[in-house]
């Protein structure tokens, strides 16, 4: 089953503003969010400024939210050779946080995520295509509870620029839905919905060229 992300509402507005006129007649169109040459490079995901948040229905009467507190991975952006673009996201399943230690223990047990056997959830891209000045269509493999399924998401680049220490950063956001039963997580179907809505926001720090050369 190939899951397609749900576009955030603001993405439609952004898409309508991708090109802006610079004159009244005979206009030349320029990108609202042009690619910056310094954006090319390899990035480490900054766990402290990234988040994975999920939503699931409870008894069909309310939405319940939780998150995973640790996120790691790498992003590669290459403006000259887009085929090198890639995204790897790794999430320790034990970092689950639902504001209840008892509930966390239940969800990470073998009845749900089975963290003892499958300690990590991950996404690894197989295709990473720029489809707009600040947007990408990314296809890859999502692994959850030991099961791997294809996933396609629309990834929005929020911005890029220097941090306070002279480093270069960029950030991304996406939302998508997954069916937990497609990953073999079928416990408590009368209490919990099958569709899990996921929000992922990533901030990444560019690896300095000297450090890249050493890797």
What's this entry about, in short?
This protein is mostly beta strands and 215 residues long. It contains 3 helices and 14 strands.
Give a structural overview.
The strands form 2 sheets. The protein has an 8-stranded antiparallel beta barrel with strand order 4-7-8-10-11-12-13-14. Strands 2-3 form a two-stranded antiparallel sheet. The longest helix has 8 residues, at 9-16. The protein has helices spanning 9-16, 101-107, 209-214; strands at residues 3-4, 19-21, 29-31, 41-45, 51-58, 62-68, 72-77, 86-92, 96-97, 120-132, 135-144, 147-162, 168-179, 195-206. The chain has 215 residues and is mainly beta. The model is unreliable at 1-33 (pLDDT under 50). The protein starts with a strand and ends with a helix. The chain is built from 3 helices and 14 strands.
Q: What is the number of strand segments?
A: 14
**Major sheet description:** 8 strands, antiparallel, barrel
Q: Please identify the structural class as seen in this structure.
A: mainly beta
Our count of helices gives 3
Identify the quaternary structure here: single chain
What fraction of the residues are assigned to beta strands by DSSP?
over 45%
